[in-house]
Amino acid sequence: MKEEYNVLLTPWKIRDLEIKNRIVMAPMGGTSIHRQEYHA
Question: Which terminus of the chain has a lower count of CB atoms within 10 Å, N or C?
Answer without folding.
Answer: C
